[in-house]
Amino acid sequence: MLKKVPVEQMRLGMHLHGLCGAWLDHPFWKTQFLLQDPTDLAKLRDSGVRECWIDVSKGLDVAANGPAVAPRRDPTPAAGPAPAVARATPGASPAAPGPVPQAAVSTAPAVPPPTVPMAEEVARAASLVNQSRQAVISLFAEARMGKALDTGGCADLVSEVTASVWRNPGAMLSLARLKTHDDYTYMHSVAVCALMVALARQLGMDEGQAREAGFAGLLHDMGKAAMPLQVLTKPGKLTDAEFALMRAHPERGHAMLMARQVGAGDVADEVTAGVLDVCLHHHEKVDGSGYPHRLRGEQISTLAKMGAVCDVYDAITSNRPYKAAWDPSESIGRMASWRSGHFDETIFQAFVKSLGIYPVGSLVRMQSDRLGVVIEQNEAAITSPKVKVFFSARQQMPVPLEVLDLASPRCSDRIVGRESNAVWKFPHLDALWAGPEVLRKLGRA
Length: 445
What we know:
Elements: E1 2-6, E2 15-19, E3 33-34, H1 38-46, E4 51-55, H2 118-144, H3 154-167, H4 169-175, H5 184-202, H6 207-219, H7 229-232, H8 240-246, H9 249-258, H10 273-281, H11 302-316, H12 328-342, H13 345-355, E5 363-366, E6 370-376, E7 386-392, E8 397-405, E9 415-418, H14 421-424, H15 429-434, H16 436-441
Antiparallel strand pairs: 1-4, 2-3, 2-4, 5-6, 5-9, 6-7, 7-8
Helix pairs in contact: 2-3, 2-4, 2-5, 3-4, 3-5, 3-6, 4-5, 5-6, 5-11, 5-13, 6-10, 9-10, 10-11, 11-12
């Protein structure tokens, strides 16, 4: 039976079922566990959370001299109701090569406009990125220690990311790209989660389907938790043997998810067949040259095709142990040159629309010969974003900062091409679009 109790009445031996309040205020990445560590109890009491749900069938009840809040059997989750998604069957056989169901995709998606200004959502998303990083680090750490995966704590994280993307996709997508090679493995999962949600939004999927896509993105690389750290973080080129080992991560991750810890009906199991499929098949290519099963074309599910695009984009726009990140706009251009054999054409086109031809953070050259950084997309004109100009290429010197809305009829300037910061080496591009305060919050200042 579930009971809602004040935090002051929590004690060791209670089974924590849920926390009342926003996920970003929680002191833990997951909320359903037996409270055994005095440090966790102290964290809970010091947090901003005032009430909790406990499950007295799995742990201690409130003390005899402490009144409990009236019990309920249907607590409302802080992050909103869980999406209605199909339950995957633990112990089922791994997916085999062959046709897999295609997710329903609208042929004429109506993309909802942002409801929150970019600058406002960037500030909120920075806190979400930090908390998401800690959640994924904890999830990977448990997997490395050989513990059965408990994915129940991921639901609130995915719901928060989905809500942020629905408010303004540019904020979370852009901030999740700001990672160092040291935390690439963890932040890559968060970034692909956000990219999958934004792509689902662009394809006309509803919020429940978008959460499933986000869940798939968050867990797609769990198999890397089984990879030796010296291989995973190797700064140089992998040997053939090391590369073969790394290519096993989709199957290792799929096996982990199949063997995960599943609650006894107390939480919705959101590791659906689609989530499992993305984990196993996000490295398949439409021409059949991918792995592990060399699926081609329609043998690859829509979700797995989405995962392939999102995984590659975040990988090439991130700093890795063996290479520097590519510029977002440059990366879109390179992916376009690969798409005939690598990506599904419809999925790739929707992906580009979800980011913009010139994603936030791209360095561009204007017709005026000024250089600028893209700071925000215009939903109705993906080739005409908002740009903050800061440098004269002709005079080779800084110019006063100016924000240009290229979709405005009053703006006479326009983008004439991409520029590579590998050439220009401007150290402050991210500060120009995200702001120094946000970078400090992310530990990037």
